[in-house]
Each structure stands twice: as C-alpha cells, then as structure tokens.
Amino acid sequence: MSGKYKYLLIVASLVALTVIAACSEEQVPTQEPVEFQPTEAVAVERPDSEPEAPPTQDVSAGDATVGQELFNSNSISACTACHSTGDNKIVGPGLLGIYERAGDRTSLDADAYIEQSLREPAAFLADDLPAIMPSFDQFSDDDVKNLIAYLKTLK
Ligand code: HEC
Fold first, then answer.
1. Above pLDDT 70, what percent of the chain?
2. Contact by Cβ (8 Å): 153, 66
3. Best mutation site among 82, 87, 143, 154 for ligand 1, i.e. most ligand atoms within 8 A of its Cβ?
4. Per mean pLDDT, which range of 42-46, 77-81, 96-100, 141-145 is the poorest?
5. All residues at 6 or more sequence positions from 59 whose CB lies less than 8 Å from its CB, including other chains
6. What is the C-alpha to C-alpha distance for residues 59 and 67, in angstroms, rounded to an integer?
C-alpha cells in the first residue's frame, strides 16, 4: 500500500468515525416543551388620577345653599314673610346688596352686623323701621354663618 492510499484510508476512517459518532448521539431533550399559557391580566381599577379639586370655599365660612333653605323655610324662620331678596321693602328692607351695606350700618363689620340683626334685631333699626322683626336667638352659630353666606350672594 502506497503512502498516498494509507493517508486516504486514515482520512476516510476519521470521516466515517465522525459521521457514526454524530449519528449515534441521541438527542435527549432536557425539558418537555410546555405549551405557553399566558395568565390573563386582571383589569385593575385605577383610582381617578385627577387630583382632588381643592375646596372652593373656606370651611369656616357658611354654606350659602343651606342658608338659602333656612331663609326660605316657613317653619323655622320665614324671613321671606318680611324680606324680599330684591330691593323692594315688604315689612323689612329688601335684602339685595345687604352684605355690602351691612358693614356701614353700625360700627360692626358686615358679619357681626348681620348676626346682631338676627339675634337682637332691635339693637339697630334699619331704615328707621319699627322693631317688629323677631329675634332669631335660637339660631346656632352655623345657622347664622350659613345665612350670612346666603345673604352675601344677594348682590
Ligand atoms: C316680622 C317681619 C320680619 C321677619 C320674619 C324677619 N325680619 Fe328681618 N327685618 C324686619 C324689619 C322690620 C327690619 C328693619 C328693622 C330692624 O332693623 O330691626 C329687619 C331688618 C333685617 C336686617 C337688617 C337689614 C338692613 O338693611 O340693615 C337683616 C339682615 C334681616 N332683617 C334679616 C332677616 C332674616 C335673615 C330673617 C329670617 C331669619 C328675617 N330678617 C326675618 C322684619 C322681619
């Protein structure tokens, strides 16, 4: 056998061995393929991201809506029996613009004057009218604040 053939034989053997080795190598899957099962996302209700609007009204101030109810309510106060919310007099003066006037009536400021008008109406007789307005001394401080808040809107 010539040197050339020997060489070819060796090369052929090596190729054959490599092929055999490659074929006999069994593929062992390390893991069973798992079907992908995505977990359904749960819809999360998010709280309104809008920041809460700051209160438009000072909490120490009265509530004009409540004050208006009090003003119009026949059973408790019946302000409407004697006062219009315009500038016409009924029995008492019309209360349009009362808050602007109130501070100039006496030495009291507007809030204090209105409170006095409710609790001690005879202490100052507006427009020289007779002292026939009943005293609303049963009103709580909140009632008074709410009424003042309402009267403020009459302008
Ligand atoms: C029986 C009628 C009568 C009733 C009811 C009455 N008032 Fe009067 N009010 C008057 C008269 C009369 C005056 C003016 C004389 C005086 O100042 O007391 C007056 C004055 C006032 C004044 C001062 C006005 C000014 O221009 O200075 C205010 C404020 C007022 N009343 C609010 C009220 C409110 C609020 C109510 C209901 C809770 C009410 N009144 C119920 C008759 C009434």
1. 78
2. no
3. 82
4. 42-46
5. none
6. 14
